[in-house]
Amino acid sequence: MKYVSTRGRAPVLSFEEAMMTGLARDGGLYLPESIPVMTTAQIAALEGLPYEEVAFQVMWPFLGGAFTAEEFREILARSYAGFAHAAKAPLKQLAPGHFLLELFHGPTLAFKDFAMQLIGQMMQASLTKSGKRITIVGATSGDTGSAAMEAFRGLENVDVFILYPHGRVSDVQRRQMTTPSKANVHAVAIDGTFDDAQARVKDMFNDFAFRDEVGLAGVNSINWARVLAQVVYYFSAAVSLGAPGRKVSFTVPTGNFGDVFAGYIAKQMGLPIERLVVATNQNDILHRCLSTGAYIPDGVQPSISPSMDIQVSSNFERALYFAYGKDGAAVAGLMEELKAGGFTLSQGVKAALAGAFDSGRCSEAETSATITATLKNAAELLCPHTAVGVKVAEEQRVQGVPMITLATAHPAKFPDAVEAASGIRPGLPPHMADLFERPERVTRLSNDLSALEAHVREHRRK
Ligand SMILES: *Cc1c(COP(=O)(O)O)cnc(C)c1O
User: Among 62, 120, 178, 284, which residue's CB has the most CB atoms within a 10 Å radius?
Assistant: First the structure.
C-alpha cells in the first residue's frame, strides 16, 4: 500500500512514512493510492466483535506491513485501554430512527482521542525501532491539542508543541492543555484565530531546513493515520444497526473535514452509507461551497461550538482530489487560487461532491435551542458541537434509513454554553475533577513564524 499526495508532486510514501510526515512536501495531503474494499461477508462478520478487533479488520489492509499483526493488535489494545466505556463508541437512541454515536469516552472527552491515542502508540512503536527523535507541532481549535498532549506526554523520543488561538478555546479545553505536568509537552497561545495557528504550522512544514533540523512531525487531522483511525467507528456503528443488510446515514459536526472524510473512506471501502451529511455552525464555508460551488473564506465568527470555528478546512482538499478524478495538478491550482482569496468549482466537480456529501448549517440560537429540546425530549445533555449535528440531522433525516449523528465531545468540555441552554452545569468526570486547581503552564506568542520556530528550537530536548 503506497501513499500519494493530493497535489501530485511529493514522493510516494509507505504508511509509516506518511504517518511520520503529516503534510506532504508539495503542500498536499497523503492518501492511499487505492482504497481497499471489504466484501459484504467481511463487513457482516464485524457484528458483535470488540471495538479493537473491528479496528484491526478495517485498518489492516492500509498498513502495508508497517507492523506485524501481533504488534498491531497490541498497539490497538493499549490505545483503547483508557476509554471509560466497554463499547468504546456506544450508540444511544435519541428519537425514532435517530441515534447518537458517543465518541467522548476517551481520556480527553472528545472524538480526537480515537485517532490520537492510536497515532501515539504507533509512532512510539516506530521510533523505538528506528531510535529516532521527533518534534510534533500541531494547531488546535481546542480538542486536538489536549488529545495529543495526553497521547504523547512522557514519551521518550517525542516533544510536543501545541498552538491554540488565545482566548478562543473554552476554559476546560485550555486547562487540559496548560496543566499536563510532563516536561515534553508545551502549550503555546498565539494571537489570532485557529486558521492563523494552522497556517503557521503549515509554514513550519514548508520551511524544509527547520523541518529537517527538528524532525518535525504532524498529528493534525491532515495526518492520514488519524483519518484512518476514524473510519473504524463508522463500521462499528453501521454494523450495530444492521449493515451491510441495511443502509444507514451519518451526520457529522464538521470543521476541518477530517471526521466526515473518514466516513467517505468507509463508504469507498464498501460500507453501505446512504448519506453523509456535513453539519456546520455559523462558520458555514463548507455548507456554502457544497451548495453553491464557491469556496471563499470570509473570516471566522467565534461561536459556542469553537472546535468548528474554521474557514480553511484542510481535509476538504482530500475530497476535492477525488472529485477532480485524482488530478493533483488541478488541486494544486485550486490551492493557489485559495491563497488569492478563494475558488469556484466547475459544475461537474460540484455535482460529484454533491453526490457524496449533503450539508446543513446551524445558527447559534438553533444550537442552544437544540440543547434545550434534546434534554426535554430525550433526557440527553448535548455538547454544542453535537447539537449542531443533531439539528441538521433532524432536518435531513428520511424515514426508513437510520440516521447516526456523531456526538463529538462530552458536554462537560463546554459547561458555559451547555448551562446557558439547559440550566444544568455538566460536571467533569472523576479523573478530571481537580482540573481547575492544577497549575497552568503556557507561553503566549505572536502570530509570527520566526518567533514560533525559535521557541520550538529552544524548548525541544536535543
Ligand atoms: C475537532 C472537532 C470537530 C470537528 O471535526 P473535524 O474533523 O475537524 O471536522 C467537531 N466537534 C468537536 C467536539 C471537535 O473536537
Answer: 120
